[in-house]
C-alpha cells in the first residue's frame, strides 16, 4: 500500500486505561471508530507510568486491583482524513491530551492475502 508513503499527519491521543465511553474502554472505542472511518490504522500503547492532567502520578502497582495507567493511541493518515476524524472523536474524549504533528512515512507494507 504505497498510498500512505509521504508527508502525513500523526495524531496522538493521551488518555487513561480506565477511561470509558458507553461502558466500553475508550481506547477500544477509538479503534472501532478508526476502522469505521477508514483510516489507515492505529496503535495503542499502554505506559508503565505518567503524570496526568491533574498532576497525579499514575503508575503500576501489584497491590491495586485497577490500574489507571496512561494510554496513547497513535493514528497516521492523510491530513484531511485526520482532521475529519478529529471532529468524530471531539465529543467522546472528556479528559486527555490530543496532539497532531507532521511525519514522513518512509514505508508502509503489509502481507498479501
From TrEMBL:
Q: One Pfam family from the UniProt entry? A: DUF190
Q: What is this protein identified as? A: Uncharacterized protein
Tell me which PANTHER family the record gives: UPF0166 PROTEIN TM_0021
Membership in a protein family: Belongs to the UPF0166 family.
Organism per entry: Phorcysia thermohydrogeniphila
Query: Where does the source fall among the domains of life?
Result: Bacteria
